[in-house]
Design brief:
With 323 residues, this protein is α/β, with parallel strands linked by helices. 31% of the residues lie in helices and 18% in strands. The protein has 9 helices and 9 strands. It has a 9-stranded mixed β-sheet, sandwiched between helices. Strand 8, helix 9 and strand 9 form a beta-alpha-beta unit.
Amino acid sequence: MKHLLPLLLLATSSTWAVDLAALKQNAQNAAEQSQVELRLDQPYAGTDNSKQKVDLYLPKKRNSDKPLPVVALIHGGGWVNGDRLGYAAAAIQFARTGDYASVAVGYRLTKEARWPAQIYDCKAAIRWIRAHAKEFNLDPDKIAVMGSSAGGHLSSLIGTSGDVKELEGDLGPNTTFSSRVQCVVNLCGPQDFTQALMFDKEKKPILKDDAVIGLLGGNYEEKHTEAVAASPVTYVTKDAPPFITFHGSADQRVAFLHAEAIHAALQKADVPSLLIPITNGGHGSVSHPEVIARAKLFVGKTLLGSDATIDTTPIPALPEKKK
């Protein structure tokens, strides 16, 4: 699920504007070549904030006249970097099949707004999908959410906390709609902030994690209440949707124990959950083509009712490219 281009912090606002315009044009060109209609910058929060918008990808040739299931994609970047355009290529891949619409979700980053702004935004985006289902011939009862790293965390939290009042927020004009989703694809997302994301060589927890501190306002010992509230494992019940989790077994940025934690919590609640390790894989190992292939099978099985058997054997990590 290769990103079109990584979005980094840029030196000047003018450079940012030029690069953002170029990224949008690249996405438009790629969508056009794939027979996908792209509707950029759809606001979901009743504001003009560029982060509080979604990009909608619709197949020009649908395989059915029935309303399309939707795959919502949430970008990573440690909650402080990244942009929804980073998932343009993945969104196009889903939409070009003619079986799905896809939505790339933007949300406020921690340099602008601290927790729980990020989940408020993402849930408002899910509600926007439902509110516009009739307009775009989408199926409001078939929504998948998928994300990597910080996006995996937000996707998982949407999945486990459907309609949890404390995490809904009151953004936008669509607050009467549900934020529930029907399945979750979690790619190496943090799941339990009462545990460290990283550990040193002696396997001691690293408390100085700038991404977590930026999100919660402190480390998990200083901000225990916030850590519990931000953790997908906190909200797991029997009503959670099916999950599939991919995570590198040697991930040093988000420890594999987070994948084990959400999988165990879901299994305990009798929620369908698949955990697929990427053997010896680091944080970026979830970009493996086999991960993407199995994720697509899972989404198809859940949203389309396809008769697919999903291989749950571990995936050997690809060799790291020499720098």
